[in-house]
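I have been asked to look over a protein record a colleague put together. Thanks in advance; the entry in question is below.
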Amino acid sequence: MNRRFARERLRPALTELLRRLHLNPRLVLQRLLRLARLDTGVFDEVRDDERELAPALIVAAVSCLLAGFGAWMYWEVRAPTPDDAFVNAFLLGSIFLAAMYAAAVLIVYVVLVQFFRVPVDLPPLARTMGYAASPLALSAGMLIPVLHPLLALMPVALLLVAMIYAAQAATHAEPGQVVAACLIGFGVMALVLGVVAYSSSGPGVPIGAGQFGLYGDFP
């Protein structure tokens, strides 16, 4: 009886929350599947849809969480498992990755606007870049022992490619300008997370480096 009552109260509340966030889970999933099929037209759609900011941010946040989950699982399947794997790899790793990806997006924006003098609206760029973070979700597969090197490196490479397409869709910049801005933003993100991994390396799991803390551990 209590469970039924809870469901009856929870369902309308959840529906109202999704409505306020303009979040259509089915539409978001369809767009992610299209991106998986290399349909970059998704970026044009979310660029022009002002209601897509919250869904794009959620996609980026969940992708970073899945990357942190994959890093945590990588350490969990090892013997012995470090005691600090959950906090350092999953919690702090996900937070640091999300923060540095947001910083990378801002760097792309600043480089295009201040250096290349290209007019760029930040909200459309944030919407397309939010969906561009989706390749990081593939890092969840790092729990598979044989494939973890591939599933740690491939999502990061795909992330850079997706960032370039997303930035190109959201701006009127020349392709070379977009590539340069994305390389700078991505490079700063990778450099900072790499330094975090190196500086916190030791007998335990690197603090806050997420999957970037695994690269030095691969054979």
Summary: The CA atoms of residues 11 and 75 lie 37 Å apart. Residues 25-217 form one domain.
